């Protein structure tokens, strides 16, 4: 019998819900037509795209025509930042982003430097919070776009977007937020946030990989990354991933219905995990804002152990967790988020990221902490630093 693994890395991707898969299957089988076709085979896919656009719009409090379908959160972030900036290139050539943005925002901004854009990086405090006054202080007459993520994908800290939006709106500056980690875990409403652009991805709330969206407020113009057939009103041209988009729409609908329950379950499991780690393992530190963070996300640094060794030994014992941002884990780089927070520390400190969801159980949490305790004890027994510390 195959040993049952425990999955605690939902920030990297959530399992597709059965109802989502069932909604997608017809568009992989009988309804295979291109939605751009004006004959019979294009009608059902075209109608499905419209329904899915409505479902995604409702999830974030947007209007249907404000939703642009993309392939992933990275593409949404690139379209938002590059599209909004390049559309203003003759008038404004300055960008403001926070120091803990996802790499798809960081590198998109870096790429815009080649077109003459200047970048101001806004710092965060020790809890990973962006100060709206710091954003206000970074604004210039030629600022085109500000990008501050709604919630960080590594430490979970939720940012004061509504306050930041008041700063940008006063200056007539576009505000983008990467809400990929947040959408589906906390209520997200574009009107309440006051943002002009917002990125979200289906694989964060029970939908398929390969389907995502960008909210673009009516009146906001984007320079398209792709040119061709004119789909998505010319803002994201190319044949649509109909099955994936249908899955995203269904996942959005299910998420709206279950959001309160999901949030409650994740909070309960998160508290249990943190309590057990604190009781079983010494020399640990939890990263992020303890009072304002994504439910079910626990980022913990453990002294006198090495991060990659922690991750590998947990994996060998059947526990799937993350060591840093999933997009960068194969590079084994230190977390730029923890670095910006001043939380890297000195010496051997290993950091793990646990992200839980509704299907996780208290039994899985108990087993995971048992395993983590055993791994930490084993690794510290081989560490001369820990021996010196205990001497």
Account of the 3D structure:
The protein contains 12 helices and 12 strands. By secondary structure, it is α/β, with parallel strands linked by helices. Helix 7 links the parallel strand 6 and strand 7 (197-201). Helix 9 crosses helix 11 (362-381). The model is unreliable at 325-331 (pLDDT under 50).
Explain the layout of strands and helices.
Layout: E1 6-7, H1 18-24, H2 40-60, E2 67-70, H3 73-86, E3 94-98, H4 103-112, E4 118-122, H5 132-138, E5 143-147, H6 161-170, E6 174-178, H7 190-193, E7 197-201, E8 212-216, H8 242-280, E9 284-287, E10 297-303, H9 307-316, E11 319-320, H10 336-340, E12 349-355, H11 362-381, H12 384-390
Helix pairs in contact: 1-8, 2-8, 3-4, 5-6, 8-11, 9-11
């Amino acid at each position: 019998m195959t040993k049952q693994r425990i999955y605690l890395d939902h920030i990297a991707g959530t399992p597709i819900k059965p109802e989502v898969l069932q909604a997608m299957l017809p568009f992989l089988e009988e309804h295979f037509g291109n939605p751009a076709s004006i004959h019979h085979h294009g009608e059902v896919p075209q109608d499905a795209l419209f329904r899915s656009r409505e479902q995604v719009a409702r999830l974030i409090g947007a209007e249907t025509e404000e939703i642009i379908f993309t392939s992933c959160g990275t593409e949404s972030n690139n379209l938002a930042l590059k599209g909004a900036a390049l559309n203003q290139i003759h008038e404004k050539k300055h960008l403001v982003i926070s120091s803990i943005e996802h790499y798809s925002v960081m590198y998109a901004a870096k790429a815009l430097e080649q077109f003459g854009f200047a970048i101001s990086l806004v710092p965060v405090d020790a809890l990973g919070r962006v100060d709206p006054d710091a954003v206000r202080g970074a604004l210039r007459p030629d600022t085109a776009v500000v990008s501050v993520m709604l919630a960080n994908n590594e430490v979970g800290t939720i940012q004061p977007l509504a306050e930041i939006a008041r700063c940008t709106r006063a200056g007539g500056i576009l505000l983008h937020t990467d809400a990929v980690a947040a959408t589906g875990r906390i209520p997200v409403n574009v009107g309440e946030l006051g943002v002009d652009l917002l990125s979200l991805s289906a694989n964060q709330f029970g939908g398929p990989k390969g389907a995502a969206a960008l909210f673009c407020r009516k009146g906001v113009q984007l320079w398209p990354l792709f040119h061709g057939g004119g789909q998505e009103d010319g803002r994201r041209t190319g044949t649509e991933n109909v099955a994936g988009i249908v899955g995203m729409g269904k996942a959005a609908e299910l998420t709206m219905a279950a959001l309160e329950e999901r949030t409650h379950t994740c909070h309960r499991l998160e508290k249990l995990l943190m309590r057990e780690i604190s009781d079983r393992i010494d020399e640990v530190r939890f990263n992020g804002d303890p009072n304002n963070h994504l439910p079910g996300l626990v980022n913990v640094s453990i002294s006198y152990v090495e991060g990659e060794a922690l991750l590998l030994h947990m994996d060998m014992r059947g526990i799937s967790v993350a060591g840093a941002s999933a997009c960068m884990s194969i590079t084994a780089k230190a977390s730029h988020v923890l670095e910006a927070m001043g939380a890297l520390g000195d010496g051997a400190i290993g950091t793990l990221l646990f992200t839980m969801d509704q299907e996780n159980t208290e039994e899985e949490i108990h087993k995971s902490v048992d395993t983590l305790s055993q791994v930490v004890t084993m690794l510290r027994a081989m560490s001369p630093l820990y021996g010196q510390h205990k001497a």
